[in-house]
């Protein structure tokens, strides 16, 4: 079963999500596990969001 949730609280997302999708202005910028996105973000937009 697939469920889509929108989180603004990253700590909660880390606890409950298997996969994370970072979106900006309605477009997918990057997707992967929480550790992949927040441990080694690739796009500049994701890096700016994390910092």
Number of strands: 2
Poorly predicted spans: none
Rounded to the nearest angstrom, the distance between the terminal CA atoms is: 33 Å
Provide the residue-averaged pLDDT. Answer: 90
Biggest sheet descriptor: 2 strands, antiparallel
Task: Report strand %.
Answer: 15-25%
Numbering strands along the chain, what is their spatial order in the largest sheet?
1-2
Short description:
It contains 3 helices and 2 strands. The chain has about 50 residues and is α+β, with helices and mostly antiparallel strands.
Structural features:
22% strand, 3 helices, 39% helix, two-stranded antiparallel sheet
Overall description:
The protein has 51 residues and is of the alpha+beta class. It is 39% helix and 22% strand. The chain contains 3 helices and 2 strands, in the order H-E-E-H-H. A two-stranded antiparallel ribbon has the order 1-2. Strand 1 and strand 2 form a beta hairpin. The longest helix is centred in the N-terminal third of the chain and has 7 residues. It is globular and about 30 Å long.
């Amino acid at each position: 079963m697939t469920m889509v949730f929108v989180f603004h609280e990253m700590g909660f997302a880390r606890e409950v999500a298997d996969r994370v999708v970072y979106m900006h202005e309605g477009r997918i910028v990057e997707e992967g596990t929480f550790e992949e996105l927040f441990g080694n973000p690739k796009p500049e937009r994701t890096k700016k969001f994390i910092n």
